[in-house]
Amino acid sequence: MPQYFRSFEDRVREAIEDELRDASFYNQMATIAPNDEIRAIIMSIAGDEYGHARIFSGILDIQTGMFVPPVAEELEYNREQFIQDLRRGIDGELQAVSEYALLARDAPNDEIRAIIMSVMGDEYAHARIFLSILSMMQGADSMWGGGLG
């Protein structure tokens, strides 16, 4: 259903679910990172995503009086696809930027709009970080024994 047919609150609920899904995905992805530095970066991003879910839960509480505590789900994870997952992360983060721009536009007040735009900035930063890791790894086949992508 297009954004303009769904209520602001429904779109915030969807944002909570998306952020939790991303947090779980990145936590799983971090388990197969090629080194401790990349693992720490990805774990930090996973923490940001969980924090975003809490922020959106707070917005939903302000708007509806209903706090939805974020609970991350466990995902099936294919350990052979780290490079593809980096690309998926870039696409997902940039999609979130687009969706949150629309959500910020429709925010009921300037305070909520500013909060959503702050989350939007984090998502853009995550995409840039994943792109940097991808670029670095494509030149470092030796970390994985060849065949990165």
Question: Can you walk through the features of this model?
Answer:
The protein has a single domain, classed as Ferritin (Up-down Bundle), CATH 1.20.1260.10. Helix content is 70%, strand content 0%. The relative contact order is 0.15. With 149 residues, the chain is an all-alpha fold. Helix 1 packs antiparallel against helix 2 and helix 2 runs antiparallel to helix 4.
> What's the main sheet like?
none
CATH level 1 name: Mainly Alpha
CATH homologous superfamily assignment: Ferritin, core subunit, four-helix bundle
Beta content: under 5%
What's the N-to-C terminus distance?
35 Å
Q: How many beta-strand segments?
A: 0
Structural class call reads mainly alpha
CATH topology: Ferritin
Q: Helix share of residues?
A: over 70%
Coarse shape: elongated
> What's the order of the H and E elements?
HHHH
* Model regions low in confidence, pLDDT < 50 over at least 5 residues: none
Average pLDDT over all residues: 86
**How many structural domains in the coordinates?**
1
Radius of gyration: 16 Å
Quickly give the CATH architecture: Up-down Bundle
Count of discrete alpha- or pi-helical segments spanning 4 or more residues: 4
